[in-house]
Every structure is written in structure tokens, then in C-alpha cells.
Amino acid sequence: MRSSACKPSGFTLVEILVVMAIVGLIAASVVFTVPSMTRDETTPQTAAATLKAQLQWARERAMIEQRPLGLLLNTEGYEFLRWQQTEEDWRWQAVNEKGLAAQDYQDNLTLEWRIDEPPFIAQEKQLENTLFSPSDDNDDEDQPMPQLLILPTGELTQFSIQFAAPFDTEPSYWLIADSAWTTRIADSDETQ
Fold first, then answer.
1. What is the number of other CB atoms lying within 10 angstroms of the CB of residue 186?
2. Is 161 in contact with 76 (CB distance < 8 Å)?
3. Residue 179, CB half-sphere, CA atoms under 13 Å: how many?
4. 0.85 cut: is pTM over it?
5. DSSP code of residue 192
6. For the residues of 73-116, what is the DSSP string, one character each?
7. Domains of the chain, each with CATH number or no CATH
């Protein structure tokens, strides 16, 4: 008599999970070994494109987390900030995530910008001196305040930021937000 026992065929769940883990590790190693541009290789056009991509990522993060983000600009770079609660109160704090990493161009690029303040900020500045006396103000003066706001609705402060190479060695590029929802990159000829 022959035994009629069936041999199982196919893969077990454990085998599938092991294969998925191996594929995940390989994909992660590829991501970490892709070379990024160094500061010396950064051009005004690539810097504008990088900030545009980072702003899109920041908008998505602000909408998902339902918490505003900000962009703190200086003449040699920028840094993303998140509105977070600390032990004492709410403050703007630096974001330390790979997709929103601070950029410091040092002497390779310079930034100039124009920010159109949202109406509620202008109203707050008008009322600032009438509602509170200087002694009522308990804000820290050294707290970083972003020039550009990214609201939880995904809206951006309207702005234009110029990325220029030193000594005009390359054409400058602008990152422009004409509305609260769209950003575009323009070269020097398009902005005049």
C-alpha cells in the first residue's frame, strides 16, 4: 500500500518574510551609498531645485502632522523649523530629518529673498504694541523665527528667493511662490 500523504508546495510565511527583509536591506544600502552633491558641486539651479523639493516634502509633513513648519533663511543657506512643545512652552525648533536637512552653502552660493507676509502676521505686528506692554512680553529674543511659514493646510507664505553664485560665475536662479500653493523656478531672464 502506498501512503497518500500530500507534500506541501509553495512558500511559508517565514520564508517570504526573510526574502522581504533581505530585499529591504539591499534597498536601504543602495539609498545610503548613492553619492550626494558636495557643496563645491552645488549650482544655483540645483540649489533652487533642492529647496523646491524640500518645500514640497515640508508641505506634506505639515499636513500629515497638522503642525506648522517654517523656513529660516540666511545669506548662506537655510534651515527648516518645526513648531513644537517644549517643557516650558511652544517654540520653533530645528528639524533634523534627512529630507529637510539644513543647507549651508558657505561661500559657494548666496541667497537673497523677499517674503510677502500673510495678513494675520501684519495684523499681529500692528496690534503688538497696543495689546501688550514690553513687560508683558515673555518671549525669548534669541528664539529663531522663520521668515517663511508652511501651514498645516499646505499653504506657503508667498516668497521669492534668489540663488546666486559668487562673482556672477553662473546665472542666478529664483525659487518663486506666486500663490500659497505653487512654486516655480525661474532664471534671471524670466524674472526681469
1. 16
2. no
3. 2
4. no
5. -
6. EETTEEEEEEEEE-SSSEEEEE---GGG--EE-TTS-EEEEEEE
7. 42-133+143-191 (3.55.40.10)
Q: Tell me phi and psi for residue 92, to 5 degrees.
A: -80, 125
- Order of strands, edge to edge, in the sheet holding 158-164? 110-116, 158-164, 173-177, 184-187
| Count of C-beta atoms within a 10 Å radius of residue 191 | 12
pLDDT tens profile 15-44: 999 999 888 888 777 655 544 555 556 889
Q: Tens digit of pLDDT for each residue in 131-147?
A: 554 544 555 556 788 99
What type of residue sits at position 175?
A: L
Q: Residue 70 corresponds to which amino acid?
A: G
Which residues, in sequence order, are CB contacts of 177 under 8 Å at separation 6+? 156, 157, 158, 159, 160, 183
* 99-102 LR contacts (CB < 8 Å, sep 24+): 99/54, 99/57, 100/54, 100/57, 100/58, 100/61, 100/69, 102/77, 102/78
**Segment (H or E) for 33:** helix 13-33
Q: Which three cell numbers stand for residue 141?
A: 529674543
